[in-house]
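subagent[fold] <- orchestrator: predict structure for attached chain, return tokens only, no commentary.
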Amino acid sequence: MNAVSYEELARWSQVAGSVVFIALLVYVFVRFVKPAIIGAQEQKNAELEEIVRRRDAARDDVSLAERELQTVSGYCDGIRERAERDAERERERILVDANAEGERVVRNAEGELERARGTARDRLRHDLLAKAVQIAREGAKTLDAGTSERLVADVLQTVERSAVG
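subagent[fold] -> orchestrator:
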């Protein structure tokens, strides 16, 4: 064979070897690499779907928690308002009770003051009467019969006028 044909044969054998090599690469790719890539892709897709599912579940949980927070906040506001109203009523009741107790103490003190005044008045009358009797006794020692009769008549007239009037 001649040199040109050996070169052509070598060239064609390189082409055939390259074609066989490429076919073998395609076969290996289709047989082993592509299923691995598809499996990894499916696994990644499954992971992403799980992440999306968990994200949606977390969003739902957050929405539920926000609604519950609003509900609880409403309850807290209601409790706070009731507590304020109850505190105001209790304050008013305490003030009414304190005023009533103060008025009772004042009335008791006024009564005690009146009793003390009455006792002092009675004591003063008694002391004045005792002093008047003492002065009258001392004066009676120096009275004569005419003056004594005139004083008795004046006292009787005063008593009669008091009884009539």
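orchestrator: received. Logging for downstream: The longest helix spans residues 3-140. Residues 3-106 form one domain.
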